[in-house]
Write a structure and sequence with these properties.
This protein is an alpha/beta fold. The chain is about 20% helix and about 30% strand.
Length: about 180
C-alpha cells in the first residue's frame, strides 16, 4: 500500500507483516529538536518508507530522505541550502539487548509499546546528518580574507620563523 501522507505513529511490526510502503513529507518547523540548529524552519523533507522482514526474520524499515535544510555558514554568516539525500536501513527491535545483536548494516530503532513515532525517527536522522561546522563550499562563500585597516589589501601574516633567520644572520656576522 502506498500513501501520500505519513501517519504520526505506526505499528512497525504490523506494517512489516503487510510490507507497507509510506510516502509523504514532514514539515521542518514541526521538528522542535532540529529547528534550533537551523537558520530557517522553512520547507519539508520528503520521506519514503518500506517495511518488511529480512531473510533472518528481522523487522526492517528502508528509509529514503530527500530535501533541503537552511543552515547558516560559519564563515560568511549567510544562509545556504544544505541538501539532504539519505537512504538507510533500520532494524526494529523492542529492547537494547536485541539492538546489540543486529547486523552492522542496520541502525537500531527501539520501539516501545509497539509504536514507532515516525517524525521522531526522521528528526533523529536529520540531526545526525547536520555538519559539525556548516559552511558554503569555497566557491559559493562570500567570506573574504581579513584586510589591513583602510588599505583594501589582504592582510599578510608574518612568518613566525623569520625570527630564526634574523638570529642566524646575527650569529653568522659575529663569527666573521
Amino acid at each position: 500500500m502506498l500513501n501520500d501522507y505519513l501517519p504520526n505513529k505506526i505499528d512497525p511490526f504490523k506494517a512489516a507483516g503487510h510490507r507497507a510502503q509510506l510516502h509523504g513529507a514532514l514539515k521542518i518547523r514541526e521538528m522542535q529538536r532540529l529547528v534550533p540548529s537551523l537558520h530557517s524552519d522553512e520547507g519539508e523533507i520528503e520521506v519514503s518508507m518500506e517495511f518488511g522482514k529480512d531473510e533472518q526474520g528481522i523487522f526492517i524499515v528502508r528509509v529514503h530522505l530527500k530535501g533541503s535544510l537552511i543552515l547558516q555558514c560559519q564563515r560568511c554568516m549567510k544562509p545556504f541550502n544544505y541538501g539532504i539525500m539519505r537512504e538507510f536501513m533500520t532494524g526494529i527491535v523492542t529492547d537494547e539487548k536485541e539492538a546489540a545483536n543486529l547486523p552492522e548494516e542496520y541502525e537500531a530503532v527501539v520501539v516501545t509499546e509497539g509504536v514507532l513515532i515516525i517524525q521522531d525517527m526522521i528528526e533523529d536522522e536529520l540531526i545526525v546528518e547536520l555538519p559539525l561546522v556548516p559552511m558554503h563550499d569555497l566557491t559559493g562563500c562570500g567570506a573574504t580574507l581579513p584586510l589591513v585597516a583602510g588599505s583594501g589589501e589582504p592582510l599578510e601574516k608574518e612568518n613566525p620563523f623569520n625570527v630564526i633567520s634574523i638570529l642566524r644572520s646575527k650569529t653568522d656576522s659575529k663569527k666573521e
